[in-house]
Amino acid sequence: APEYPWNLDRLDSLVNLLPVRIGGINAPMVYFGAWRSMFGLHVEDMNLSSINYLHAGAPKTWYGIPSTSADAFEDAVRVMVPGLLDAAPDLLHRLVTLVPPAALRDGHGVEVFQATQAPGEFVVTWPRAYHAGFSHGHNVGEAVNFGTAEWVTAGRSAVEGYARGVGKRDAVFSHDRMVMD
């Protein structure tokens, strides 16, 4: 087995202060992809960042919407499919939403970026950056969330949004308890 000079399980992050291990949040998860397997547009729980490493196999294509365009993306979804987010307020947290990047960019002015991740490469997403992607074939990846000191404000924003009913979901962990402890 190859030896790596890094270990996603030892990533220095605020979420390591949590008293329990949560898969994908502060405990890395391994993902197995297949041809055309995909993950829909979403932001990470609690607006955390994520680091994704592709160990082996076929590449992945990623689409990213920066946090500065997150509101524009959500507004575009409301226009493109009226009533959908009212009927399913947590839809954008389910990893099932696909929207053509060109329709977002050309029809609604949403910034959308594309990257292809090859084995041995990392992809990092930042707080409240929507992202989606698909595999070009069988592959093995690993990912975990992380929070830096700069994330604290984005985490607070997520909790406040959840409390107002934006996204209609519960917080994954207590932001206040983690930050105050």
Please give a structural write-up:
It is a single chain. The protein has 181 residues and is of the alpha+beta class. It contains 5 helices and 8 strands, in the order E-E-E-E-H-H-H-E-E-E-E-H-H. The strands form 2 sheets. A 4-stranded antiparallel beta sheet has the order 1-8-3-6, with no helix packed on it. A 4-stranded antiparallel beta sheet has the order 2-7-4-5, with no helix packed on it. The radius of gyration is 17 Å and the shape is globular. The protein starts with 28 loop residues before the first strand and ends with a helix. 28% of the residues are buried.
Q: Counting H and I runs of at least 4 residues, what is the number of helices?
A: 5
Low-confidence stretches: none
Radius of gyration: 17 Å
How do the helices and strands follow one another from N- to C-terminus?
EEEEHHHEEEEHH
- What is the strand tally? 8
The strand order across the widest sheet is: 1-8-3-6
Range of helix content: 10-25%
Average of the residue pLDDT scores = 90
Which descriptor suits the 3D outline? globular
Note the gap between the termini. Answer: 39 Å
SS strand fraction: 25-35%
SSE-based structural type:
alpha+beta
Main beta-sheet strand count, sense and barrel state: 4 strands, antiparallel
